[in-house]
Specification:
The chain contains 6 helices and 7 strands, in the order H-H-E-H-H-E-E-E-H-E-E-E-H. By secondary structure, the protein is an alpha/beta fold. It has a single domain, classed as tt1808, chain A (Alpha-Beta Complex), CATH 3.90.1570. The chain has a 7-stranded mixed beta sheet, sandwiched between helices.
Length: about 200
């Protein structure tokens, strides 16, 4: 575990280092000049996408497989969701994308999507959504600094396969917002598919 009092002005950090950093997310973001808030992000215009075949497959996988690694989670729980979405929404997905801004903001994005009007990054963890969110937050900061035009929205999600948390960034005010709602699969798979489709297509909230 890295020390909470560590000086972020010195040394080199990858995204995965922030997962291990013993520091609150608001303090971490403040060091990069960003603010943090938590509120319910209402995807009220997102329509559920029903896919009974996918839900049945995930039910079966959860009952028969042990998800002891991030690779297993990504291969058996997350990848089928993206395959399902690709049949309905036109987008390109990059996996294991390396990005670099400086020695404090660099690393690998598990999943990265760029559409005409936004960017989406998804971080997959084996466990610990809270520390996973710290890593996601730093990835959002890095994307904000790297990507143009600034009119494009940036969304993020962190998942342990069965639980998903969403976030977004106000690029003008430099505020990262964490959604208070945790979406769980398979119970809320239809809603999760609808939200992912919604933000990839950049529908209005």
């Amino acid at each position: 575990m890295l020390n909470k009092s560590i000086d972020l002005k010195n040394g080199s950090f990858s995204f995965s280092d922030y997962f291990k950093l013993n520091i609150e997310v608001d303090e971490l973001l403040n060091r990069f000049g960003y603010q943090f808030e938590k509120r319910k992000i209402l995807f009220k215009n997102a329509k559920d996408i029903v896919d009974e075949g996918l839900k049945s497959d995930i039910d079966m996988l959860l009952s028969r497989l042990e998800f002891n690694t991030e690779i297993a989670i990504r291969e058996f729980l997350i990848s089928p969701i993206f395959i399902c979405l690709m049949k309905r929404v036109q987008f390109n997905l990059k996996s294991e994308k390396n990005i670099y801004f400086d020695e404090k903001l660099r690393g690998v994005l598990d999943y990265y999507i760029e559409s005409s009007d936004n960017f989406v990054v998804i971080e997959a963890k084996q466990k610990d959504l809270n520390n996973g969110f710290k890593q996601l937050a730093v990835e959002l900061v890095t994307l904000d600094k790297l990507t143009e035009p600034k009119e494009k929205k940036i969304y993020g999600a962190v998942t342990i396969g069965t639980d998903w948390i969403f976030a977004t960034i106000d690029r003008k005010k430099k505020i990262i917002t964490k959604d208070l709602k945790i979406y769980r699969i398979p119970e809320e798979l239809d809603k999760l598919l609808g939200i992912l489709s919604f933000i990839i297509e950049d529908k209005k909230w």
